[in-house]
Amino acid sequence: MRFLKWIFLALLGLVLLAVASANRDPVLLRLLPAEVDSFFGFGLAIEVPLFLAIFAGIVAGLGIGFVWEWLREAKHRSAASQHRREAGRLAREVDRLKSQKDEPEDEVLALLDSKGTR
User: Fold this and answer.
1) Residue 46, strand partner residues
2) Over 90: is that where the pLDDT of 84 sits?
3) Domain-wise residue ranges, the chain
C-alpha cells in the first residue's frame, strides 16, 4: 500500500511539473477590473507565470472547501462532544450507584444485615 502511495505521488508530481513547464508565460492578475481601478484611484496588479495562477486557484479552492466543510460539520462535532460529556456523567453515576449498593443506606438495615436476620 505504501508503494502505491509513493507511485501516485510521483505521478502527481510529474503531471504538475508538466503543467508548470507548459504554462510559463507571464499573465497579469488584477484585484479589480481596469474600469473600477480608475474609478477608485487604486489598483493592485501582479504579473506571475500562468502555472502559479493555476496552482494558486487549486490551493484556494481546496482551502475554501476545507473551511466550508469544517463550518458545516460544527453541529456534528458539538453534538458528539455533548454525547461524550453525557456518557461520562452517566458512567460516573453508575459507578456511584454500584458503590452505594455495597453499603447499606440505613443504620437499621446495616444492623439487620450484620445479624443475618434479613
Assistant:
1) 29
2) yes
3) 19-72, 74-118
> Is 23 in contact with 50 (CB distance < 8 Å)?
yes
In the chain the first and final C-alpha atoms are separated, in Å, by 66
Is residue 43 classed as helix, strand or coil in its secondary structure? coil
Higher-confidence residue of 118 and 102: namely 102
Cell of 18: 508538466
pTM (2 d.p.): 0.61
Q: 26 — alpha (psi -120 to 50), left (phi > 0) or beta?
A: beta
DSSP string, 56-101: HHHHHHHHHHHHHHHHHTHHHHHHHHHHHHHHHHHHHHHHHHHHHH
DSSP 42: -
**Mean pLDDT, residues 97-103 taken together:** 74
34 or 6, which is more confident? Answer: 6
